[in-house]
């Protein structure tokens, strides 16, 4: 099969980009796979791209790029329309509702068209109008599948397939560093301010432990100010963005996930693959869908006293090496269900099944 993945930009530091590139790399072992980035926002992709995966972009918005046409939405829409109308793939996987609507409208009917969804469905007219023209929707969680199935009301088959880890071997933590790590974009929904406030309690009682934050984003200035105000400059370190988050997690003994919503969850599954226990909040649409509390993680209720509860959960693991090791073993077991071959096999079966209906 020839398989095309269409993404808004394959050049950024996003969990959905990482998940798409992982899946594309595994499928490329048996199929002709390309990733089409609507926009090219930098010279090279943030994450490594497997050499077997073809890569191309439609509109170059990288700094310093020469442009024949003025920057603007019209130019992007024209380039996307041309690409879809001329597509000669067997399967097209789109990774954002806006792109899926365009796929339904303009991609050739003989192409199997699949919408890959990570978030809850937006209640907008184009979704209801155009999605029934697609062949399937694939979500990353069971709750997501239920949400999309209710919206589409049996007009389209909806499947749940988790995100894939990169091909192994994965780095593995020795669990002997007194480090708590967290990673991802520094944006408000990730709620790193909650983590920093909770770690202030940990640092006060166990000053030999450190918190490392990996990532970049608009919240960095505010978070640095919070670290300064809490006098945590010797305990909390901003490590910057890295394409090898798993390699950095392997240096930690605990991974903290303070997000209010963790729809994508690549941070969570990469931590599991390193054999590191996770401490997370048990909120709606949170990491609970990706974890087995008590076996690979500790979940803390959100709400009143949540900062104190999160700090207590961190301290409990800091002080209990045997429990940390037990959860670490459970993390590796949880990660095994998300290996690249296992996940790619499910996608391949779905694609062949949809093609056989044509």
State the assembly state of the protein chains: single chain
- What is the N-to-C order of secondary-structure elements (H for helix, E for strand)? EHEEHEHEHEHEEHEHEHEHEEHHH
* CATH class group of the largest domain: Alpha Beta
How many β-strand stretches?
13
Strand line-up in the sheet with most strands = 3-2-1-4-5-6-7
Output the CATH topology of the largest domain: Rossmann fold
Main sheet? Answer: 7 strands, parallel
Name the CATH superfamily classification of the largest domain. Answer: Glycogen Phosphorylase B
- The domain tally reads 2
Q: How far apart lie the N and C ends?
A: 14 Å
Shape: globular
Segments where pLDDT lies below 50 for 5+ residues? none
Structural class: alpha/beta
How many helical elements?
12
**What Rg is obtained from the alpha carbons, in whole angstroms?**
21 Å
Question: Mind explaining what this structure looks like?
Answer:
With 358 residues, the protein is an alpha/beta fold. The protein has two domains: 2-166 and 339-356, Rossmann fold, CATH 3.40.50.2000; 179-337, Glycogen Phosphorylase B (Rossmann fold, 3-Layer(aba) Sandwich), CATH 3.40.50. The protein has helices at 15-27, 73-85, 97-106, 125-130, 142-152, 192-205, 220-229, 245-249, 266-273, 306-318, 321-335, 340-356, and strands spanning 2-7, 32-40, 54-60, 91-94, 112-117, 136-139, 158-160, 179-183, 210-214, 236-240, 254-257, 278-281, 297-300. Helix 7 (220-229) links the parallel strand 9 (210-214) and strand 10 (236-240).
